Amino acid sequence: MNIYQEWGFTESPFQTKALEADEKGEALLVGRNSEIIKIQRRLHNPPKITSIEGANGIGKTSLINVAAYKCFKSFLESGNSPVIIPLNKNFQLNPSSFVEEFVNDVLMEVAQALIEHQSQLKKITGNLDTRHLNSWLNSPQIHSYSASISGLFGGGKINAINTSSGFSRSGFKKIVLDWLSELFPSHSSGGVLCVVDNLELLMTSNKAREFVEQLRDEILLSPGLRWVVCGALGVTYSVLSSPRIEGILHDPINIKKIDDECIEELWKSRIEYYAVISEPYMPLTIDSFRLLYEILNGNTRSVLSYSDNYCTWVSDNDQPQTKEEKEEYFQEWLDFESSKIFSSVSSFLRPRAWSVFDKLIELGGETSPGSFAEFGFRSYPAMRPSIKDLEDCGLVTSLQDDSDKRKKTILVTPKARLVHYHKHISNTQE
Ligand SMILES: Nc1ncnc2c1ncn2[C@@H]1O[C@H](COP(=O)(O)OP(=O)(O)O)[C@@H](O)[C@H]1O
Ligand SMILES: [Mg+2]
Q1: Total domain count for the chain?
Q2: 400-425 pLDDT per residue, tens
Q3: What is the span of the domain harbouring residue 374?
Q4: What is the pLDDT of residues 265-288, one digit of tens each?
Q5: Which residue has the CA at smallest separation from atom 25 of ligand 1?
Q6: Are the C-beta atoms of residues 184 and 224 closer than 8 Å to each other?
Q7: Which of 98, 225, 365, 414 has the fewest Cβ atoms surrounding its Cβ within 10 A?
Q8: Residue 23 lies in a domain
Q9: What's the superkingdom here (predicted)?
Q10: Is 28 in the pocket of ligand 1 (CB under 6 A)?
């Protein structure tokens, strides 16, 4: 049995998956108007690549997806170029990724999106250069390839190339790139939007720089593709510091937590979107949700995830009914949860690590290796063991050390915010 269904929702209003490039994503995204405009402005001013930096869980992927959807929707409504076509998935790189596989994966998705949208593209004339569009859409190639691709893969997702199907890998690559240059003859006609997400998964900024440099020659500059690269922990700044990339990447748009004034809207939009009855049961109140948002310093993913934890905890107990009861329950759960997390880390941390922790929180939860003096150290190597201890306990994250320390970010995690909350509460109670 699903607790949320029992309470009168279709499903959990606290799902932590990124919002997608669709109507639902658009309906649930709140407080990002200025960021959407910034992204759209960059997408409409190629050839430089858009880049986005921001903490994990802050809402980067959701923002890009919805921005892409809005671009496409406005094209469908107005017919004005440039047309930006979103893909059904974003791409990720990891230390064992190969450039060739990656390029292949991208082109597969691109082909799929073009085929999927061909009827919509056909309908639109507007200011688009229809000469190219029509010749592409009416070419015998698209019919035969879309037929063979959907035949081969059962009309579903294309996820492998079968060389016996009559076209080789390189043949396929050429066809898709040709389609793109026919469809989008100039930068101003638009492109298919490809998002490289979570660049920090490459683990070091050197690795990220190298990978993006390789992609630059392979595919980043191909006509008809618009790129967004997205990462956390300062990785996009590191990529930007490569002389080979500098000229082709916009300065990162730094995504911060959404404004406090938008929390109520975030709450309401989800409750309303998922409600099946007019007054579903919800043990969490908006004030408790807001408190959680404050404690977790606006990390949307963690706020949603802990809200869900609390609801699950309630479902195992008696259900509070009045606002006061609900808030009392919430406080009990919060004290229990934060003290549990505190106990799980406290025995591992030496006083020195604790003092780095406290200072880090005091500084807003973010620092870089260059700031060792503020923590009372003579050099970063002297501070490193404390950072490592905090990292091992899951209280901070950072990219692995390498030569580039300029923009490297050391960031506290949502777990650390709960630890701090617990410390703070016990201090004030003493
Ligand atoms: N502006 C927003 N409005 C509503 N929900 C959001 C917003 N930003 C993020 N979320 C929600 O927060 C969670 C994390 O967002 P996500 O985009 O995956 O973050 P990131 O990519 O930065 O790690 C998702 O569940 C998403 O639905
Ligand atoms: Mg993301």
Answers
A1: 3
A2: 766 655 567 899 999 999 999 999 88
A3: 351-429
A4: 999 999 999 999 999 999 999 999
A5: 16
A6: yes
A7: 98
A8: no
A9: Bacteria
A10: yes
